[in-house]
Amino acid sequence: MPDNAPEKSGQSFSLQSVRLLLPFFRQYALRLVWGIIALLLVDFLQLWTPRIIKRAVDELGSGTATGPGLLRYAGLILLLAAGIALCRFIWRYLILGFSRLLERDLRDRLLSHLLTLDRMFFQRHTTGEVMALTTNDLAAVQLASGMGLIAFVDAVVMTLAALAFMAYIHPMLTVIAVLPMPALIFSTRLLSARMHKRFKKVQEQFEKLTEFARSTLANIRLIKAYTQEAPQTEQFGRMGEEYIRNNLKVAVVQGILSPFSGLVANCSLLLVLFFGGRLTIQGIITIGDFVAFFSYLFMLTWPMMALGWVANLFQRGATSLGRIDLILQEKPLLKDCAAGPRTVPPAAGNITLTHLSFGFPGQTEPAIHDVSMTIGPGILGVFGKSGSGKTTLCNILARLYPVADGTFFLDGADVNTLPLAAVRGSIAYVPQETTLFSDTIRFNIALGKGNAAMAEIEEVARAASIHQEIMALADGYQTRVGERGVKLSGGQRQRIALARALLLDRPIIIIDDGLSAVDMETEQAIIRSMASYLQGRTCIVVSHRVAPLADAGEILVMDQGRIAARGNHAYLFANNPFYAKIYTHQTTVRGRQG
């Protein structure tokens, strides 16, 4: 839920959330209209069948029935049955197909919206929650807009039509037949409110189950290394038991509603049997009328018994739709410019920060405080203790966090006046956490440039010092790396990610401690190799090791979100005690290890 989202009651919020579906109903209006027409034809043909049976029974009762006449009635019933079967197929194809199209389009809209949200959102919502929305919740919406819609329309039409035919036969008997119905309406309204609350808990618990399963599988090696299989299994079992308990609470409500609907329907049948039988004995209505009345009452029984089921479907769908609506109401803090130019000239890679400050929501101290500097082509090293703001600065430069106007300029233009895609398209970013897809090495390197030639891929792999190791694998660049690159070492994954960034050939490249898994000598060799490969480009390298940054044109030392010192290696070694101490310690340790 958005932090600033107002609290709303389940019922009012569900009514508002239904607006989400209106565009889809308009888009597929013609399909729905024909589907409902076919559904109404089914109801009409079903309602006409008792009229034929009435005539046949009356003729049998009066002794005027003939073989050809009865055969004609049988033929009419068969013809009606064939029409019912055909129309039933049509409405199933059109309306149930509509519910699947709605599910697809709503899932596409949800995913498109999720891709517009920034990191702040994903820090507040787990992957399991999002997965639950795109699976379980969408399925509930689909069922409500498919079978729920059909059952609702069918129940309303059948109820009104059946009541009309029953009233035509005998109005007072019809009144008697519907006497138990107010009790059903009252109980349905009462129990539906409880259904909403209980089903919401079911969906929330499903989110936790999904996230726990995802996290367990994603970190299976760590779990095995710490022999946590049994505790994980026990915890998952406890969560599953809680999920079952919540589902049983929903089942209790549904278990009360459905049998109560049947009880009300059977009470109506009992009343009609008693009073209608007396009317037939007295000759007020014919036997055919009594049989037809009973047939219509049976048709009315289905809507009465289906009322609980329809209410259940709609409550589940409304609850899930409300949860989806909350996500669709989320707005990214980092907004794309609306009035700026949609295209910008290719960036030269010049970055200017002017009194830049940035703080995370809910934190009193800014993560970046009053940073001013100019970055041009060449290698800029960034060094500092953990929590000094290095990664936050990288995320800001990569346009992943919002900044105030007049604080961040790219080639002289305020980034808030430039399209996000244009700014990000000028930057190749290698984050701390390496992400590889379960595909081939070639696919992972060429992720941002799918049409890259093999020669280009090999060139950037050499620049990242990974080409020889790839060629040593059985399938070379066609080797599949497994989920999240599980078949590769940490250093190999990082260098593949670096090659991927180099292949983009963008004017700015940011490497946020992206070589931490390789040894210091390899890291230094890679940075030197990139110096010649990235001539004329701006390269920002963050490292927790000082020695690999020694060849950088300029180095920033960050502390508590500020630039504590800046200069080349010689200047910092002579004038910054902290820098000199860390450099001496790291190089001394390396010498001893050698």
Supply database-style keywords.
single chain, 594 residues, alpha/beta, ABC transporter transmembrane region fold, Rossmann fold, 2 domains, six-stranded mixed beta sheet, four-stranded antiparallel beta sheet, 20 helices, 10 strands, 64% helix, elongated, disordered N terminus
Describe this structure in words.
Helix 6 packs antiparallel against helix 11. The strands form 2 sheets. Strands 6-7-8-3-9-10 form a 6-stranded mixed sheet, with helices on both faces. A 4-stranded antiparallel sheet has the order 2-1-4-5, covered by helices on one side. A hairpin with a 2-residue loop joins strand 9 and strand 10 (562-567). The chain has 2 domains: 17-328, ABC transporter type 1, transmembrane domain (ABC transporter transmembrane region fold); 351-593, P-loop containing nucleotide triphosphate hydrolases (Rossmann fold). The radius of gyration is 35 Å and the shape is elongated. It has 594 residues and is of the alpha/beta class. Helix content is 64%, strand content 9%.
